[in-house]
Amino acid sequence: MSEQSVAEYRIEDLAHLSGATVRTIRAYQDRGLLPKPERRGRSNVYGAAHLTRLRQIADLLDRGYTLASIKELLEAWDTGRGLGGVLGLVAEVQGPWTDEEAARITRAELVAAFGGVPDERAVAEAVELGVLEPIPGRDDEFLVPSPQELAVAVELSAAGVPLPAISGHLRELRGQVEHIAARFLEFTTEHVFGRYLGQRPPTDAAAAEAAALVRRLRPLAQQTVDAELARAMRTFATRHLHRHLTEDTAADTASEQRPVVLPVDTIRAVQNLVGRENTAAFIAAATEREVQARVLDALAPRPQGSR
Where is the signal peptide (predicted)? Predict the structure, then answer.
């Protein structure tokens, strides 16, 4: 039966037109996501409303909603509250957070950019990190979501930084930046967006106003990080250079070293993890990472009233 004829479908027809399986349709009915069909004798008859609802569910699933959230949204729709504002807010949040445009690079261009020596392990790690994305059907070409990020890696490699060190630095940096992003979201949710998100789902008017605020506030996160990173780099780079240019740097460094007493169990655990010869370096690296994390905590905005 075609969609253009009388809008009455058997469950098999509905499954074919909607792209859902018969089993999925029945599961949606059981969960209250899809109205029950009309019963005619021994047959169940579905209509255009069922097809529309299945397409709505598929669209919301593609946008990342869970079935529980979709049920709330559809119940709001059924009571006369539209989804346009909510979907507009979702589109605004899921839209690009940068003006940078993705590019493509061939495998040959990639090898040339990194010194002319193929390194499949480095390529695999770049794919894992999302710096490169495979293109289906094109084994010799990759999508580059952030050409700037790849350009940084190229410059670091040309300066002599090993590729494993570059990828390790990116992993560590990404974790720290994600921490800052989470803190910024907590901050703006408490002080800005909380009043719009109190009702689930929000009204069309509230969602539209929240979407407008997302557009206004979107650049602030990057601007804040850029400004604070510039300040920190100026401070630490100046201090670092001064320390290395001072005549008695070696003496100063030696005088700054102090023995630290650690629990025996801690030393043993680290030795079992990385070996006796790497114990001191591991403890120093772990300590430096913790200090950096606390510096980032101090730079990130904290919600008022938190400790």
Answer: none
